[in-house]
Predict the 3D structure of the following.
Amino acid sequence: MTEYVSTTPGLFPLPDWAKDDLSDLKGHQKHDLIGGDEDGEIAAAYENARSDVIEDQQNAGLDRIVEGQLRWDDMLAHPLAVHDAVETRGIVRYYDNNNFYREPVVSDELEFSGDVASELEATSEVTDGDLQAVLPGPYSLADLATDEQYGDDAEFLGAIADFLAGEVDAFPAHETLFLLEPSLVEEPPEDGADERASEAIDRVASATDADVVVQPYWGALEEKVYAHLLDADIDAVGFDFVANQDDNIYNIQEYGATGDISLGLADGQNTLVEDPEAIRDRVDWVEDQLQVTEFETVYLTTNTETFYLPYAKYQEKLEALAEAADLAEVTAA
């Protein structure tokens, strides 16, 4: 029987109190953003905020608990932005929305950092819930960065994959790993590069025994990109059914799917909070379109990260997802 798991792609908004406190503590300039060496009041504020978002997830009843990535000033680029081998330069638009990040320029060999592992370790110390790790996928991280060290796109992607695999290897025990890959949709790889992207994802996935979900968003994957992604040794592919229903359904019908699936059914960027029964109905709709396909695990999640939302709305989205998963379990039974 299918198991329905409520979760998120992480990257939560800061609690309102933390947003105010950290604005005063950190300042507002580029050089005031996180560098990986923060301590004192700043570190304490992030630690307390992390406890808040963990409590939010537990109170909502989510099946997977994420760290929240509240320190990630640079969105998906964070693991590079805090790395000693990386120089952050000008402010760059984050895809085509109104958020920005510091351009990470890799200027030396990418070696082990441990920054994200320490975040997940801190999370494991304050919850008994099933942990879910969150990382940028290797293709998206390479796409967001600039290479001044490796001199070749394929070599650079391989170095990014090896770096992320080393970070994953240092993670505490976790049930699930979400690799966020919006660039597979926004800047799809060309012929040859699509196969290398799949191989890079496979390299990162092989570093953990947890279930690995590759979560693209902001649309649907091109057919060849999707077909190559299925060659990676992963447990689930995510689908953004908020941004594009038809092409995502087509990909599954035409090329099949992994044994598990992640459904982005709640809008991570819109303040309108979905009714849990409406989310459950969307699950039914997807499953009806696929007819004979039955998945071992179905992850119910927002289609994107939720840092765009007001804090109270993000909390309501968590509750809706958790209740929708419970309703889907009842329906399946």
